[in-house]
Amino acid sequence: MTQTTTKRGKFIVFEGTDGCGKSTQMSMLAKYLTGMGVECYTTHEPTDSLFGAQLRACMSGRLDADERAIAALFAADRLDHITNSVNGIMGKLDAGVTVLCDRYYLSSFAYNSGAAPLEWVIGLNRLAMEMLPPDLTVYIDVPVEVSARRLGRRNERERYETQEKQLTVHKTYLQLFERFRETEHIEIVKSEANKEDTQKHIREIVNGLFGF
Ligand code: TYD
């Protein structure tokens, strides 16, 4: 009897401050990879599940909640995102699909620490870190003034969308990259004025991951 083994898909995460352009870069990459014959699934956190809906309500201000409750809810949303039997990331990867995810646990560490101690937030996400570390995390590095200008054009402001918070978030991300440099594959990509140029850098990194 011949047995076919499916090659596991790659798990690629995009991180960055609000308005950094990661969702645009992620969909450009999905298009590229699909063209290269890689089956892709794009997803995001907060998710579209009921956990994610609660989080979106908190982000928009429709629901007020304690920062620690929000941090715990993000961790729950993530665990469900990983393990869900219908469209969980783990199942997709096992089926050979490459998963591109807009935000993952580094977002929790960068955004939800402060009011809640960082070590506690890391503890909440320990299981996700052990179960499913990304094969690659791409951090889109954009000056906070630039992303603030982009966010300023939107009509509504979300919970964390102040320039002060974004500066703290960016600083925390950089500290986290130092801390996890041995255990996580993180690449910082400077956001260029032209989005095609940014994408070119991302593709070079991703080509290496796939051996193209
Ligand atoms: P995002 O989807 O990037 O924003 P949008 O779709 O509105 O452009 O993320 C929504 C917000 O959620 C963002 O401010 C960051 C925050 N967030 C956390 O605070 N912790 C987390 O773990 C995640 C995944 C997101």
Please provide a brief summary of the model.
The protein has 212 residues and is of the alpha/beta class.
Question: Can you give a write-up of this model?
Answer:
The protein is 52% helix and 13% strand. The protein is built from 10 helices and 5 strands; from the N terminus they run βαβαααβαααβααβα. It has a 5-stranded parallel sheet, sandwiched between helices. It has 212 residues and is α/β, with parallel strands linked by helices. The structure holds thymidine-5'-diphosphate. The site of thymidine-5'-diphosphate (TYD) has 14 residues, from helix 5.
List segments where confidence is low: pLDDT < 50 over at least 5 consecutive residues. Answer: none
Number of domains: 1
Residues in helix, %: 40-55%
Strand order of the largest sheet: 2-3-1-4-5
Just give the CATH class: Alpha Beta
> What share of residues are in beta strands?
5-15%
In sequence order, what are the helices and strands, one letter per element?
EHEHHHEHHHEHHEH
What's the CATH architecture name?
3-Layer(aba) Sandwich
Alpha plus pi helix count: 10
Question: What is the approximate shape?
Answer: globular
What's the alpha carbon Rg, rounded to whole Å? Answer: 17 Å
Integer average pLDDT: 95
How is the biggest beta sheet arranged?
A: 5 strands, parallel
Secondary structure: number of strands:
5
* Attached small molecules: thymidine-5'-diphosphate
Structural class: alpha/beta
Question: What would CATH call the homologous superfamily?
Answer: P-loop containing nucleotide triphosphate hydrolases
Oligomer: single chain
- What is the CATH topology descriptor? Rossmann fold
